[in-house]
Amino acid sequence: xxxxxxxxxxxxxxxxxxxxxxxxxxxxxxxxxxxxxxxxxxxxxxxxxxxxxxxxxxxxxxxxxxxxxxxxxxxxxxxxxxxxxxxxxxxxxxxxxxxxxxxxxxxxxxxxxxxxxxxxxxxxxxxxxxxxxxxxxxxxxxxxxxxxxxxxxxxxxxxxxxxxxxxxxxxxxxxxxxxxxxxxxxxxxxxxxxxxxxxxxxxxxxxxxxxxxxxxxxxxxxxxxxxxxxxxxxxxxxxxxxxxxxxxxxxxxxxxxxxxxxxxxxxxxxxxxxxxxxxxxxxxxxxxxxxxxxxxxxxxxxxxxxxxxxxxxxxxxxxxxxxxxxxxxxxxxxxxxxxxxxxxxxxxxxxxxxxxxxxx
Length: 360
Hints:
The chain is mainly α. The chain has helices at residues 54-68, 75-79, 86-89, 110-138, 149-174, 200-224, 238-242, 248-278, 284-298, 305-322, 326-348, 353-358, and strands at residues 4-6, 9-12, 21-26, 43-46.
């Protein structure tokens, strides 16, 4: 393949034949940057034009100066801590706080982050407010209120199936140009569940135990601080409480929705995409907090917002330590499934769960 050199920059034809553009890339290998960034195009130039790449050169020189500066940490060190030492590989390090600050090498930038979140939010609203109602109407259902609780739970399940498929597809489409992605991005693996230090099931079970503790401590702290939750409004369990029926299919439909599909979608978006993207611009603990606030806000529940943020923080740090989305999915699903099961048991014992939830 023919290539022309200008300083540390290489201009090469695109792989697709017939293209009229060249890509200008920096020889990032000489700067010690990750292999995944070596072939990322920095600027574009037309065939026959003089290759100058002024912006690319300026950026490379700035990076090189940072690498050579004696008192400044290399750029890579600011984004990601070095891998665990052999000694750390043999320990869980539950109380080694620096290991909760390990970031990811994220190949995309802020533009893809903003586009991905906006596109996902738009697709979520489109499916929930347009597509699903249209499908229901096409099926001949004109009055949803007249349906049985079991039928309503199945409609909720169908909507969640669409939301999950479309939402994950949107995120993947935004990042398609950066494939293949690094191994620890969007990783969902069920292998080596108890292997130190990343065993997903170990961290997952720990999170399942700690989730009620974290939320309980949050509620206690808010109570002692004088915080008064908003009166009325929509809570995260209100919608479920309205369609609870002592019927197996109703329970199965709602359980699949809340404990399986919702965690898959939300963990992919808020931990797999948002958290990792933010860790490119801020320390991992800060990225966990910011993504947790976004997670809480996305539920549109002012009443449950503090508890949702607390749960999000737990989910975020579980992902930081396990590097596996299966971990926060397990914790999230266990929490939602437990809440749903408790509501069904209360309803079976004669408690009016709608009134109970309304009282907070």
